[in-house]
Design a protein that fits this description.
single chain; about 70 residues; about 20% strand
Length: about 70
């Protein structure tokens, strides 16, 4: 695996990789506080042994896309 990902994994609590599909996380509404800013941080890597397929990241609140990034 080191040949495909020669750099270190960034700091964080969760790490995952996909060859296809998607990853999602749902946070219960009662966990969120009103008048509070929340930050989503995502690092996207590129395997050294395969072409970069691009990505799409979305932050949704109650099913509504509030922020997104694609490449």
């Amino acid at each position: 695996m080191i040949n495909q990902f020669p750099g270190d994994v960034p700091d964080g609590e969760n790490t995952a990789f996909l060859n296809s599909g998607f990853i999602s996380q749902t946070i219960a509404a009662e966990t969120l506080l009103a008048d509070t800013d929340y930050t989503l941080e995502v690092d996207v890597g590129d395997r050294a042994d395969a072409p970069f397929p691009g990505y799409a990241i979305q932050l949704r609140v109650a099913g509504v896309v509030r922020a997104s990034a694609t490449q």
